[in-house]
Amino acid sequence: MAGDGEGAGLRREYVEQDGVGVADQLQRLWTPHRLAYIKGENKPEGDDESGCPFCRLARLDDETALIVARGESVFAVLNLYPYNPGHLMVVPYRHVADYPDLTAEETVEVAEFTQRAMRVIRRVSAAHGFNIGLNQGVAAGAGIAAHLHQHVVPRWGGDSNFMPVIGHTKVLPQLLGQTRQLLADAW
Questions:
Q1: Where is the HIT domain (predicted)?
Q2: Which of 87, 95, 147, 149 is catalytic?
């Protein structure tokens, strides 16, 4: 990229803010569009099943709900706000918030579905790696803290770029319904 020799056009400012510490050499990348998530906008109210999107999804047909596969005690569903293409979640049918509260059967099936999801995603999209995780509680970043869900996020070398942060755009190669069908067929 052409630039002025100082970070290809990035402007560096070292401003001391009164009462907020001393100036440093760190660059700041501000993402004000994430504030809605931080404030909890559009999150379900309360901890009961009536407002829980996962409980509602489990009652819908697979295509409408973007459910990839169903098991005895869990299901795999695409994330409506994916970090990457193929980002899905393994969710118990039972409305439970805390990992230690899962039954032994639920725990095993969460693990088995996670393994299966990784195999399927690798087969259909040649993912280079995965981020797998549970955010337990609001303080830990759980968007829907009242209903446990494990994220399975496929990763490829170079998949993190400037588009979501700078361009306010997420690049996905196909519609979620098409991704659901591809994964469901391979499941």
A1: 53-162
A2: 149
